[in-house]
Amino acid sequence: MQADLSNGIVIEYDTFGDPADPAVLLVMGFGAQLLGWDAEFCRLLAGRGRYVIRYDNRDCGLSTTYDDVPVDLMELIGAVTSGDVERAQGMSPYTLRDMAGDGMGLLQALGIDRAHVVGSSMGGMIAQKMAAEWPDRVMSLTSMMSTTGEAEYGRSTPEAQQVLFSPRPADREGYVAAAERELVWASRKYGDPAPLRALAAASYDRSYYPAGVPRQLAAMILDGSRADALRALAVPTVVIHGLDDTLIDPSGGERTAELVPGAELVLVEDMGHDRPRPLWPQLVEAIHDHTERSAQAPGRDDQQPQVP
After folding, report:
1. What is the pLDDT along the chain (308 residues), one digit of tens a residue?
2. Whole-structure pTM value
3. Is 176 part of a structural domain of the chain?
4. Is residue 307 part of a domain?
5. Residue 149 lies in a domain
6. Phi, psi dihedral angles at 15 (to 5 degrees)
């Protein structure tokens, strides 16, 4: 399904569950399509009485792309590494706040005034931005395997960083095979190349679009530190982070929870920068319980108001 937003962006999305239930907006990470939120995971959460919405960020999947603004990934990394922020900013046609606005616009297009927001990796950064910029519309925040934008926290290992910035082959067979590289940041116990290859194949067949990757990266990097905004956050927050994460070190999650007033920190054993199937019940339970507590907090209403 597609939603035409007031800013001219078209967002592709799926929903699970009963629209009368409290809405949970799932925000995906860097370069990943909505398929990254596995449909069965979404159904498990919907089965706990939540109306689950997953969507493609701009410049990814079937949402609006920016073909007229090509960005070379190596040139972007070079500009950032050399400290030439102005040149890097000139490459980026949008900001992380713009991407956060897309999520809020999608909710408005669906007639949903407020929602619980769950963001993973870059999606966690976008979700933090939503909570900071639109606190009256975010009932609760779940920041998963993410960080604060402060350079000293949530660092990648050199091995994980190399995989992140190494483009996959353009042919389908090579693209799918290269997905196994992501085992470098996966759960040590549950890491499995089969689901990585399956997701890569499904993503390639649905929408192979590597051109959006450097533009999303620019928006993410150039957002800078969100520390001050997180310190001022008044949205109920839970931070979930895997102890095996080598792409965004657990210090990123720990720092997020340290900054947000009253935030709960959930460090998950045997979870890396992934959501392995054996951990789905635990993750769904954590999200459900957090949204339940948030809805019952003083001054909050569990009813789902509609946009006039």
Report:
1. 999 999 999 999 999 999 999 999 999 999 999 999 999 999 999 999 999 999 999 999 999 999 999 988 888 888 888 888 888 888 889 999 999 999 999 999 999 999 999 999 999 999 999 999 999 999 999 999 999 999 999 999 999 999 998 999 999 999 999 999 999 999 999 999 999 999 999 999 999 999 999 999 999 989 999 999 999 999 999 999 999 999 999 999 999 999 999 999 999 999 999 999 999 999 999 999 999 998 776 655 444 433 32
2. 0.94
3. no
4. no
5. yes
6. -130, 155
Q: How far apart are CA 246 and CA 1, in angstroms?
A: 34
- The greatest distance separating any two alpha carbons of the chain, rounded to the nearest whole angstrom, comes to 54
Q: What is the CATH number of the domain that holds 284?
A: 3.40.50.1820
Domain tally for the chain? 1
Give residue 278's domain range: 2-156+212-296
